[in-house]
Specification:
Blueprint lengths: L9 H6 L13 E7 L4 H14 L4 E4 L1 H6 L1 H9 L3 E4 L12 H18 L6 E2 L8 H9 L3 E2 L4 E2 L9 H11 L5 E5 L5 H17 L3 E2 L4
Parallel strand pairs: 1-2, 1-7, 1-8, 2-3, 4-5, 6-7
Helix pairs in contact: 2-8, 5-6, 7-8
Length: 212
């Protein structure tokens, strides 16, 4: 399975309905998510912004980055945000045999549990690429596999920061799960698009919440 587009098609959501694409609700809630951290420079900037805007979000963290930057990870938790597993080495499920993929997933889980007293059962496959066998086993372990409704493409150097912003504000609706990246690769687009997106979405009456 490979899911790379700005707005996820409703038929894809129906076909792969064992994955979480959005979270329907009646309160105009939407869900900001960040992949690939924690990275000191970038994640800390995101956390500062979220704190100033009084917003909570969900961070899908790479195990190796948790190991390298435990203080940043602990700050995510201390400020009331949710975290999830994003494998230890940002593995492409299509290119990794299931045994190795699950071992890497477990390594990431271990790093989370060293610092997080509450076990988060959220997982997002890097690149949106995961084999059915990998998905099945991870779900059998009690995890929700969190995909997305809206992909900002902040990581894509071929699109402008303005296009990144437009991707988000034009496609977000009630219940949307939105993906940004707290990574060095995404930093330029992220720093332009995220503050503006938050303001515009707030003006539209949306409320931000964590995934649980």
């Amino acid at each position: 399975m490979n899911f790379n587009w700005v707005k996820t098609n409703k038929w894809i959501k129906k076909i792969f309905n064992n994955l979480v694409w959005d979270i329907p609700n009646s309160d105009k809630k939407i869900y900001l998510t960040f992949d690939d951290g924690p990275i000191p420079k970038v994640t800390e900037w995101v956390l500062d912004l979220l704190k100033s805007e009084e917003i909570k979000a969900t961070f899908f963290c790479i195990g190796d980055n948790i190991k390298k930057h435990p203080e940043v990870y602990k700050r995510i938790l201390s400020e009331g945000h949710q975290t999830g597993n994003h494998t230890f080495n940002h593995l492409n499920g299509w290119k990794t045999n299931t045994k190795s993929y699950l071992e890497n997933f477990k390594l990431c889980e271990t790093e989370h549990l060293k610092l997080n007293t509450e076990h988060s059962f959220l997982f997002r496959p890097p690149y949106g690429k995961i084999k059915p066998s990998q998905s099945k086993t991870i779900r059998q372990l009690g995890y929700k596999i969190i995909m997305w409704d809206v992909l900002s493409y902040d990581f894509d150097s071929t699109i402008s920061a303005e296009e990144c912003l437009e991707n988000v504000i034009s496609n977000t609706e009630q219940g949307s799960i939105i993906v940004f990246h707290d990574s060095l690769k995404a930093e330029k687009n992220l720093k332009y698009a995220l503050p503006k997106a938050i303001q515009i979405l707030k003006d539209k009456g949306f409320v931000f919440d964590v995934i649980s």
